[in-house]
Task: inverse folding
């Protein structure tokens, strides 16, 4: 996934000119960019971003051709075609690209102490020298609306309704064809009878067009706003071989872009929304997949005021799309519509003082190589404004002088390693890569797993948890909270030597432990270890330059697995390099491959490759330690041809081996077996396809020769599991206790959120009925873009863009800093368990929900999950306008009673929801009075105190006082001093309050769900609010006791009565303690509550303070204070008892004196 | 055999003044079912934090020291934590005895908790080119009539210099302490040491005050540089912006490196006027020939030592800039419209260049030790068998 970082960079054209560029067109590899202004064609280089050459038209030619409008590159970068206003196609030869000639090569002064800043500056940091030569122009005699290059041809649409096919070589003379739009038959799908030419195409032309390779056709927007798709029925484009399809009911199309990897056509509309279409493979009709629209919820100011969609730009890897509107702004979406960034809101749209900024209006934009940059040309008036601002700051001396073109902005992006290299270990860690650095999450979730495992393993075996490792629970929760709480990344800068010669980085991979990373650029690769903090590069630069990574890279244990092309042997290879040894081919294991590799993945001890011939190969890896140096042997296990199911190899997004099965035909097996490579998951253009191993054969064979058999088991025909899939997560780990979470399949589906394919386990291991399904697909919404699933922790990790404004700072004259916020990426995480539990309950799968919840009950945030579940259901059902015949809240409540946290969960949830919903809540979960009493019985006083707040708001004061007294007494008895102090406050507050009686709590039978406001009272006491003042004013309590706070006489009376009441209770408790000779408790009681002891003891001198049973009192004292009994000297065995009596008297006296 | 495992749940990184807690578990690993099982005895165990100082011979001249005896007799029962370590022990906490006469039955294990304040006045953990300060928690155990065995747990200590003293509690009345009030205040005070340090860090590093610099060389103005603050925490990004559009001299390339300078105090230098050792911790290089404005962001690594000073060594941080500029100012050529001939402008093949450099001192402060723990090389758990 893509995230914006930093500020944009602004480029400066070294030529002064009155004209300003308005169009940018990248070459096929995005190393060159063609920029057009009215009479000028300039070519820029990507890195360094410098101007190479500029062609300025002569006045005569400019008058003949008209102004430049659009440009297109020939696929091999050797030519640029420019469309002009008067209907000409100008063809420019781009010369000198391959020669060893460079521009801006620095010449250091002789005798300079430091000759070069960077070694090898010349080759890497210089732009190649190019020159432009115009060839014969072609006159198409009508304004040109669209240009599109094919492999050999250039397709041009003109405003007279024609489609011209021109050959790149010998343009204009041979091979020129013109097809009239009216001759193309259009229908709603390809199956319906081919009618004649559509009549209503008269006078209509193609406004915008783009060719989709994987659909083999053109997505077009017609001048009347209709959308269509034109496909050639044969291999060549000829007039009578074209067939068109309409998109139904759309009349306001403005622009189009296609996604070759996911076979999607995106059309911009005048309404401001982007429609994403796919082609139905059976009928050939255009089907709306989803829309990209700003929501009124997130963009209330702008969502319907954006104007028409102006430009749509898919990133080079087709995983995100950038959209801009007439009113400006940049907006980024994932392929299936998850919204990532929009510069029309928040810090992008407002200054730090709250004033509104003008949105950045864009006339043209283009992604740079590998999507690390977005080159943006702001539209003219925008730049004017910017310059005016600058002129205010810096007084320009000569305004009439043609100014420098300062138009191009480069936005920087970092992206998830998953977008191009979706190998398994990248899915378990969050790894982002920018142009020159890697971002990884701090903290290792695996460590947490291991501690939790230790915990579960050790506990039952050993009866003495006292002597066991450091309180695994606390470390677990601490680990997790820090893991979740920190938004920091660990940033690793990519080694500059590698980066300079191999920019841009194309693949990145991290190992499962999150300790080792590998990156691959144009040639070779390099890896880094967090242990050593060092990069390892090829020692031999020739070896590095002789290979290029083609299918991605992955870690297997401490080896880097690379699918690459070897330039010396001219063959595709699978290589494994040891991390510990030098990076050298001498230490590599090399396996020859027969076809180009497109994707690579690792599952346990297997490597899975997807090749350009649409076949999947499984290899086994085995480490051998027999030789002097450890070696690795790679063996081909199986080859599966997929060409029947895959129309084009470029459509495969990811391929994974998993242990997931639908479990048809076999009963539930032990988890060990569940960890075998059971099926292949293939993401084909967003369609998730599963191929299971065919176990329909006789099962006996399984046992005979399992090793051989495993290799030979063929795969069943594919089954489609889900649509619109962006990423898939599975794990090969197993945990008997968390089977639901570990054996599930997690999918991210763009705007639709996530889906989980959850296994359903039969109860009590009975043989399941064959008609019951074994798995269920549950969708759920999350607020973040998911990048990793922590299976055991029931967590999703992601990242979001955050912004910081720097514009309010003094002296920052930099206009860009004032114009844009500084963008950072922060890691986020989300719990989702409550969604799943709820969905299971809705589907009457409560048993599964219970099993799942019980497996997660030890998670530190599990109470939060339950709370969220009640809260969400409560909010939904209590505020629903329509009656709910089958409310879920009672079910949820009953579900939670299965957990010891029930009482706590309900009261926490209640206190976080508004008062108006309480009646609905307690009608479902039970009377708060009963719940309060349950808390008291369970000795959970803190929760009981929380219920007291509820009671106090829902009941008459008498009831809440009665309950408060109960709680106060229990708290005194248990020595919960903080709570006692709170209760004293509470009781006083109740007494001082007004005496009118609110209606009693409705009983569960009364379905009065609305109108909760009539119970509302102004007075409310919050324990949490008063907690601070109370704990600091511990010693002042006595003072407040005697100080009446009420002003009116009546208030004072009430106050006094209340104080009396409390004092009575305190005395009673003190008497009770003294009666039982609990002097230590009495001491604490007095110290903690500021109970005035001396006077009281004086008063009680002859009552309860009298000791009757001296022996037991003495024993009790010794026990209380852990005071050893006096050692009786041998000689004085017959000492009189009187001594002891004296002693005890003394001691009690002393203690009472405190 | 007895297995001794020491583990610090909080991670191996601490801020000076913080309470270090380590749980030390002694286990008799024999199963009580095995035939040769027997109880194991340990005479005593004791633990201590100490800091070892080591200086490179050819950079630091230390005053001659009496050779401390490093050899320990087998029969000795004195724990010398620095035994067998390189360098000298510059700081140690008082040893704490964990137990005497421990008997472990087969399969039995016992855990002891060791806690100690990490000394406030010590140097931070530092591995420089001339000087090293290494902190360790050493646990010594001895069986009767056997040599002392040492278990070492390396730690990393961050020092926040200039930490304010804890404020004197104002609210509490000056009254004789009540024995029935538990010692909760004391523990609360320890916990706030870290909080106060973090607060102070937050306050000092979150303040933004932009500094503007005009970068010029002898030939003219090159660029305008702005940095938003000069005090950073570990793990933070140093962000600065460049504006080249107003410069007279074209700049082809610039680089920014984050560097630390390790300087030996004069009286300890091996050679007079010896060079300061400089090491780099991240570099940003950018070509900026046709660039109007740009910015860099350099992360301060989490594993480096923040700036500090002892009587032997001073560590300072700086940003080192290098610029490659053209020798002459280049007036941008003007493209005139409506020329009778086609004009093709191409960039120059060679540019005569000059280089110059500049240093900007910055301050690097510690961060939350929990955060630094994540990237620590130490794992916080060590074990030996005795």
Result:
């Amino acid at each position: 996934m893509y995230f914006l970082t930093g500020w944009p960079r602004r480029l400066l054209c070294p030529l002064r000119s009155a004209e300003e560029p308005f169009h940018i067109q990248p070459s096929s590899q995005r190393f060159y960019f063609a920029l057009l202004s009215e009479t000028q064609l300039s070519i820029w280089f990507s890195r360094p971003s410098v101007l190479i050459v500029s062609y300025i038209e002569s006045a005569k030619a400019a008058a003949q051709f008209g102004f430049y409008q659009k440009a297109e590159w020939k696929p091999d970068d050797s030519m640029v075609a420019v469309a002009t206003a008067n209907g000409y196609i100008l063809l420019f030869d781009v010369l000198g690209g391959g020669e060893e000639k460079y521009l801006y090569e620095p010449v250091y002064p002789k005798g300079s102490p430091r000759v070069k800043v960077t070694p090898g500056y010349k080759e890497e940091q210089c732009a190649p020298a190019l020159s432009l030569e115009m060839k014969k122009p072609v006159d198409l005699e009508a304004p040109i609306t669209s240009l599109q290059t094919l492999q050999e041809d250039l397709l041009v649409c003109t405003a007279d309704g024609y489609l011209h096919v021109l050959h790149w070589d010998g343009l204009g003379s041979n091979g020129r064809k013109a097809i009239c739009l009216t001759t193309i038959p259009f229908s709603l799908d390809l199956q319906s009878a081919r009618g004649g030419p559509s009549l209503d195409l008269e006078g209509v032309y193609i406004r915008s067009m783009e060719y989709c390779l994987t659909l083999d056709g053109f997505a077009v927007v017609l001048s009347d706003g209709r959308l269509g798709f034109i496909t050639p029925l044969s291999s060549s484009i000829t007039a009578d071989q074209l067939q068109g399809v309409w998109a139904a009911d759309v009349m306001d199309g403005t622009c189009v872009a296609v996604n070759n990897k996911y076979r999607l056509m995106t059309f911009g509309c005048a309404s401001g929304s982007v429609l994403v279409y796919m082609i139905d493979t059976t009928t050939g009709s255009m089907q709306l997949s989803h829309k990209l629209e700003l929501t009124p919820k997130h963009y209330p100011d702008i969502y319907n005021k954006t104007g028409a969609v102006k430009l749509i730009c898919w990133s080079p890897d087709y995983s995100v799309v950038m959209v801009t509107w007439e009113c400006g702004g940049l907006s980024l979406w994932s392929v299936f519509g998850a919204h990532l960034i929009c510069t029309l809101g928040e810090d992008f749209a407002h200054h730090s003082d709250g004033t509104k900024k003008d949105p950045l209006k864009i006339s043209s934009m283009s992604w740079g190589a590998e999507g690390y940059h977005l080159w943006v040309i702001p539209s003219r008036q925008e730049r004017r404004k910017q310059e005016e601002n600058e002129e205010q700051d810096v007084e320009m001396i000569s305004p009439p002088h043609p100014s420098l073109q300062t138009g191009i902005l480069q936005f920087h992006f970092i992206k998830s390693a998953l977008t191009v290299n979706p190998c398994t270990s990248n899915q378990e860690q969050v790894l982002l890569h920018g142009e020159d650095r890697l971002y990884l999450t701090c903290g290792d979730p695996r460590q947490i797993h291991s501690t939790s495992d230790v915990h579960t393993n050790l506990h039952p075996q050993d009866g003495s948890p006292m002597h066991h490792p450091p309180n695994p629970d606390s470390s677990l929760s601490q680990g997790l909270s820090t893991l979740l709480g920190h938004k920091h990344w660990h940033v690793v800068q990519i080694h500059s030597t590698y980066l300079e010669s191999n920019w841009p980085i194309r693949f990145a991979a991290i190992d499962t432990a999150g300790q080792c990373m590998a990156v691959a650029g144009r040639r070779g690769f390099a890896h880094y270890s967090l242990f050593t903090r060092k990069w390892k590069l090829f020692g031999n630069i020739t070896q590095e330059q002789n290979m290029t990574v083609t299918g991605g890279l992955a870690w297997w244990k401490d080896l880097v697995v690379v699918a690459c092309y070897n330039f010396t042997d001219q063959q595709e290879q699978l290589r494994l390099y040891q991390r510990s040894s030098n990076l050298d081919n001498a230490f590599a294991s090399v396996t020859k491959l027969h076809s180009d590799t497109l994707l690579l993945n690792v599952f346990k001890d297997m490597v899975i490759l997807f090749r350009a011939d649409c076949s999947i190969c499984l290899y086994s890896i085995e480490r051998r330690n027999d030789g002097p140096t450890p070696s690795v042997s790679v063996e081909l296990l199986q080859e599966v041809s997929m060409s029947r199911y895959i129309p084009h190899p470029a459509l495969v997004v990811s391929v994974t081996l998993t242990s997931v099965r639908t479990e048809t035909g076999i009963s539930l097996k032990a988890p060990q077996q569940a960890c075998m490579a059971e099926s292949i998951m293939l993401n084909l253009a967003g369609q998730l396809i599963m191929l299971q191993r065919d176990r329909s054969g006789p099962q006996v064979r399984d046992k005979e020769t399992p090793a051989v058999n495993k290799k030979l088991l063929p795969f069943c025909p594919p089954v489609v599991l889900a649509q619109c899939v962006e990423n898939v997560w599975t794990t090969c780990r197993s945990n008997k206790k968390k089977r639901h979470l570990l054996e599930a399949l997690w999918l991210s589906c763009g705007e639709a959120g996530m889906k989980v394919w959850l296994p359903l386990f039969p109860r009590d291991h009975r043989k399941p009925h064959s008609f019951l399904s074994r798995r269920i697909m549950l969708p759920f919404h999350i607020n973040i873009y998911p990048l990793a699933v922590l299976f055991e922790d029931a967590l999703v990790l992601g990242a979001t863009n955050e912004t910081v404004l720097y514009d309010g700072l003094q002296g920052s004259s930099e206009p860009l800093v004032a114009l844009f916020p500084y963008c950072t990426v922060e890691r986020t995480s989300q719990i989702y368990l409550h969604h799943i539990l709820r969905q299971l309950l809705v589907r009457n799968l409560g048993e599964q929900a219970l099993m799942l919840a019980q497996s997660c009950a030890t998670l530190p945030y599990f109470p939060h999950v339950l709370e969220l579940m009640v809260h969400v259901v409560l909010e939904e059902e209590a505020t629903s306008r329509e009656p709910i015949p089958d409310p879920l809240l009672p079910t949820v409540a009953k579900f939670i009673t299965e957990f010891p946290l029930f009482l706590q969960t309900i009261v926490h949830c209640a206190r976080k929801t508004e008062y108006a919903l309480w009646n609905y809540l307690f009608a479902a979960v039970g009377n708060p009075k009963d719940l309060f009493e349950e808390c008291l019985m369970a000795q959970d006083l803190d929760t009981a105190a929380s219920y007291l707040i509820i009671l106090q708001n829902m009941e008459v004061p008498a009831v809440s006082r009665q309950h408060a007294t109960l709680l106060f007494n229990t708290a005194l008895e248990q020595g919960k001093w903080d709570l006692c102090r709170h209760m004293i406050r509470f009781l006083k507050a109740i007494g001082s309050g007004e005496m009118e009686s609110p209606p009693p709590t409705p009983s569960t039978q009364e379905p009065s769900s609305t109108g909760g406001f009539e119970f509302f009272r102004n007075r409310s006491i919050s324990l949490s609010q008063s907690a601070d003042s109370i704990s600091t004013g511990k010693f002042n309590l006595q003072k407040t006791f005697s100080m009446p706070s009420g002003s009116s006489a009546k208030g004072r009376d009430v106050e006094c009565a209340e104080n009396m009441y409390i004092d009575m209770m305190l005395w009673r408790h003190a008497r009770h303690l003294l009666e039982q000779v609990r002097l230590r408790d009495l001491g604490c009681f007095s110290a903690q509550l500021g109970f005035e002891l001396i006077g009281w003891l004086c008063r009680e001198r002859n009552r309860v303070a009298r000791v009757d049973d001296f022996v037991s009192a003495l024993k009790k004292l010794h026990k209380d204070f852990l005071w050893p009994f006096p050692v009786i000297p041998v000689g004085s065995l017959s000492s009189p008892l009187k001594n002891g009596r004296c002693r005890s008297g003394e001691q009690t006296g002393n203690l009472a004196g405190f | 055999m007895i297995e001794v495992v020491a583990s610090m749940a909080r991670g191996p990184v601490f801020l000076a003044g913080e309470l270090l807690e380590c749980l030390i578990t002694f286990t008799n690993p024999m199963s009580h079912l095995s035939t040769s099982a027997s109880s194991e005895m340990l005479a005593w165990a004791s633990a201590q934090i100490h800091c070892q100082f080591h200086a490179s011979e050819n950079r630091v001249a230390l005053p001659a020291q009496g050779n401390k005896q490093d050899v320990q007799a087998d029969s000795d029962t004195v724990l010398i934590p620095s035994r067998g370590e390189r360098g000298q022990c510059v700081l140690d906490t008082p040893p704490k005895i964990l137990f005497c006469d421990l008997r472990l039955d087969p399969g039995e294990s016992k855990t002891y908790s060791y806690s100690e304040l990490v000394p406030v006045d010590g140097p931070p953990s530092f591995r420089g080119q001339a000087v090293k300060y290494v902190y360790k928690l050493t646990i010594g155990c001895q069986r009767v009539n056997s040599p002392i065995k040492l278990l070492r747990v390396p730690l990393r200590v961050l020092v926040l210099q200039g930490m304010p003293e804890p404020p004197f509690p104002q609210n509490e009345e000056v009254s004789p302490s009540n024995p029935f009030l538990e010692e909760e205040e004391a523990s609360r005070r320890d916990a706030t040491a870290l909080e106060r340090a973090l607060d102070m860090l937050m306050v000092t590093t979150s303040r933004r005050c932009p500094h503007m610099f005009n970068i010029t060389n002898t030939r003219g103005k090159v660029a305008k540089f702005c940095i938003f603050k000069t005090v950073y925490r570990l793990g933070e990004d140093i962000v600065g912006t460049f504006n080249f559009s107003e410069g007279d001299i074209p700049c082809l390339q610039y680089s920014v490196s984050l560097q630390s300078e390790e300087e030996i105090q004069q009286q300890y230098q091996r050679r007079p006027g010896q060079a300061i050792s400089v090491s780099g911790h991240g570099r940003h290089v950018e070509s900026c020939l046709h660039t109007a404005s740009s910015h860099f962001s350099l992360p301060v690594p989490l594993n480096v030592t923040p700036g500090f000073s002892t009587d032997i060594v001073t560590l300072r941080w700086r940003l080192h800039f290098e610029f490659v500029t053209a020798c002459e100012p280049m007036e941008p050529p003007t493209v005139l419209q409506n020329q009778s001939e086609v004009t093709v402008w191409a960039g120059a093949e060679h540019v005569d260049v000059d280089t110059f450099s500049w240093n900007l001192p910055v301050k690097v402060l510690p961060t939350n030790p929990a955060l630094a723990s994540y990237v620590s090389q130490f794992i916080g758990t060590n074990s030996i068998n005795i």
User: Anything to note?
Assistant: Chain A has a mean pLDDT of 79.
